[in-house]
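Lest this sound abstract, we let one protein speak, letters for residues, whole numbers for local backbone shapes, and leave readers to judge:
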Amino acid sequence: MDRTWAQDVLRCRLCETPGPPMYCDICHVHLCKACVGEHLSDESTEHRVVPFKKRGFAPECLKHSKKLCELYCEHCNISICLECVSTGEHLGHKQVELLKSLEAKKEVLQKDLQELEKLIYPKYQEIESNFPVLKADLKENSKKVTAAIGKHGDILHREIDTAINKLKSDVDEMESKHLVALNKHENEIKCICNEITQSIANLNKLLNSNDVSFVSTYQSRNAEFRRLPPKLTVSLPIFTPQKINREQIYQQIGSLSALSIKTEEHGYTMDSPGAESFSPDRPLIDVPLIITDIKTKYGESNELLSVSCLSDDEVWTSGQDNMMRLYNLHSKLVKSIQTKSGNTPADIAVTQSGELVYTDPDDRTVNIVKDTKIQTVIRLQGWRPLYVCSTFSGDLLVVMVTDDIKQTKVVRYSGSTVKQTIQYDDKGQPLYSSDRPLCKYISENKNLDICVADLRACAIVVVNQAGKLRFTYPGPPSTTKELFLPISITTDSQGQILTVNYNNCCIHILDQDGQFLRYIDNCNLQQPLGLCVDTKDNLFVVEQNKGKVKKIQYYM
């Protein structure tokens, strides 16, 4: 039977066997296993025969024609061939196998898609579905108010008809304004829902593509969608009738309460991205291992205090001088930045977008470093910022004390705007200790709990997203009850809490409900202080006087 290749693309090019399992990525032909050898014997051109399902993942090199890319340069963000490597152009750059790079990128895509489909989009649908109820309540309330005004108008007869009609008109105007506000908010939610739908479609398209260059163009918007919109809150008008007095008829008709339309931050809540994928059964390693020992310029004369991961390969550090230093895992100093005021930073953190944040208590400021330029985002009066962390939503949580060190609170900021203040429990008692020592490192957990290591109180204090006390951890149950001095804190992707006991230089690991799991006490830590974890849940620990940062593996 006469066939063209356009009509029957799934036959071996050489013998026309149907359903060939192999494919030549360079010649773009289908091959059965029996014909692979014959195809490779043609030495006039290069060949790359792969299983049919893996076809097309290795694109041709942009610089060297007829060469297929086998590696991916993460520094240059491009696919490269072996000839690219031999030229030395990518010397010192991190290179990974192309297939592994594609799989890693698709894993990120899959996580984003899962978060959009299972968390973010359903939440927006839930918000959107509530608008008809709000509109019905609005209509019902307006009817009730109008009826009350009408009844009072009947009593006041013809001389107050004008005033009654005025009030009715006011109600209609308020309803109209309220409806406009509701429609506007509804349209904004629908618009975001459409954007999420488009993102889901794009992600599915990317997941179905084997084009590395195409997949690499993806930029996640999940952090943007994760920040839920403010909730619209309206005080509906109430009519208050007055006793009739003909001499002061207009004053006695009554009045409508003013229309109040405002947005309420944290009105909507959503589980954190890791909530569904939380795996409490991920095993801890029997004997934690020191993977890397990063040596820094800090030491006894300039103690190392804080550490924060920029990536799995680089960490920011700060100590008792006015410099913040970025080191890689090979102890190489990558970058140094001096504080804007020349003062010593109290603490550092890295935002979701990779920007460095630091607190300056003497200057009463919180600052962010953008492209080596320092911007002051928060300036306080009467309070001094001490410790800081960046949240999953992109907010900053700042621990601060009054100038007289008599009060301590945690404040949530979106940019320079205060969104939440956490200071007292339900009984009006302070959640956090005051006076020295002031160490109160802070971290947000995967379930959005806010965890503070309160050194003076000798306890870990954990509140939920709304600022309500969940539990305090005063140290593990023990018959010998040693002094528990939690001097720093961090949390990992499993929702577990890690803290350093400054009294005995060991690290406590707790679950998200404050239950003690185990110690890390075998790594010969010398005066451990600041903590952070990378995306793979490796722990970085500062050694205060040694000026070292140890990277420790504690999961299997």
About this structure: The chain is about 25% helix and 30% strand.
